[in-house]
From TrEMBL:
It comes from the Eukaryota. Residues 304-330 are annotated as: Disordered. It comes from Haemaphysalis longicornis (Bush tick). This is Uncharacterized protein. Residues 311-330 have a biased composition (Polar residues). PANTHER family: L1 TRANSPOSABLE ELEMENT-RELATED (PTHR11505).
Length: 330
């Protein structure tokens, strides 16, 4: 870069105490010719160095503060930035339009798909499958409930068959804990003395529950011969006029059967007229010439439909059939 030794333009900027105006960057012109008239060459050179040093101090580091660009360069740069910004905006706007078109196309396809026959058929199929599945689940629940109830009835029937040869004696005196042999001897002696029945072989006889002083535990007896059990139960009514305190004999049933018989007895006590008698035969009630049973659906006592024979004969037949079945099983 060439240097004009005759004229130096020194930009010293605007300062607070400067007397120049801020509209023209305050240029200071040094005319070399006027200085030459009064200064020697060494003095002129010293003045130039002083001005350059003063300029460097005012300007700072040239690399970090190169000074302002020319106005046309600044305008060119601004135009380039504006053009670049316009291009970027146009590109973004174009992409947004493409995205909107894509979304619109997707919505259109979804709408067409929803309105298509295949989707309608699919919805119908799904609804049908859902209904079938619900119906199948209900059927499975009903089957499971019926199967559970059937299994419960089978287990209850087996339990009652196991207890068929059993009798329960209540009220037999007990002064101290008994062994099974002592209890068996007590039963044999009691039946022989009070009912005039010679009991055959007893399979098992024992008290129910834990012994406590001052209490009388019931005795459960299992006979080997069903006829012995039937004869004792048939003559049990004789004990009413023989013993005081009273000793009574009952059949041994499963917990479910005991609950049914209790409901039948409660119904009989609430329904029968004064002086009327009733009889509970297995899970049936004979009252006033009619047979009643417990309805498993309503859990209420209802009369059995008549079968053309008097209810008393039905009850006796039912009792005889029960005895005959037990005898055959033995």
């Amino acid at each position: 870069m060439g240097v004009d030794l005759c004229t130096y333009r020194i930009r010293v900027g605007c300062f607070v105490r400067a007397g120049c105006s801020t509209r023209n960057d305050c240029p200071v012109w040094l005319q070399a010719e006027s200085l030459t008239r009064h200064l020697s060459t060494g003095a002129r050179f010293s003045l130039v160095l002083f001005c350059l040093a003063h300029l460097l101090v005012c300007a700072g580091d040239v690399e970090t503060n190169p000074g302002p660009e020319k106005l046309d360069q600044v305008l060119t740069l601004v135009k380039e930035l504006i053009t670049s910004n316009h291009k970027f905006q146009e590109e973004v706007s174009g992409r947004l339009k493409d995205l909107q078109l894509s979304v619109t196309d997707i919505k259109r396809r979804l709408s067409e798909l929803e309105q298509s026959d295949s989707v309608r058929d699919l919805r119908v199929d799904v609804s049908s499958v859902s209904s079938l599945l619900k119906e199948s689940c209900d059927q499975l629940r009903n089957i499971d409930s019926r199967q559970t109830q059937r299994s419960s009835l089978v287990v209850d029937d087996l339990d009652n068959r196991i207890r068929r040869n059993n009798l329960i004696f209540k009220g037999l005196p007990e002064t101290s804990p008994e062994t099974w042999a002592e209890t068996e001897e007590t039963i044999t002696k009691f039946v022989s003395e009070n009912l005039d029945i010679d009991v055959g072989e007893i399979e098992r006889a024992h008290r129910i529950g834990e012994w406590k002083e001052g209490t009388v535990r019931p005795v459960v007896v299992k006979f080997l011969n069903f006829k012995d059990k039937h004869n004792i139960l048939k003559n049990a009514s004789k004990l009413k006029d023989v013993l005081a305190p009273r000793v009574w004999i009952e059949e041994d049933f499963s917990p479910r059967m005991q609950l049914i018989r209790k409901q039948l007895r409660d119904f009989a006590h609430a329904t029968k007229q004064p002086g009327e008698k009733y009889k509970v035969i297995s899970d049936k009630l004979l009252l006033n010439g009619r047979l009643y049973h417990l309805d498993p659906v309503t859990n209420g006592v209802v009369p059995l439909p008549r079968r053309g024979t008097p209810a008393t004969e039905q009850g006796e037949t039912l009792l005889e059939e029960s005895s005959a079945t037990a005898a055959k099983e033995k």
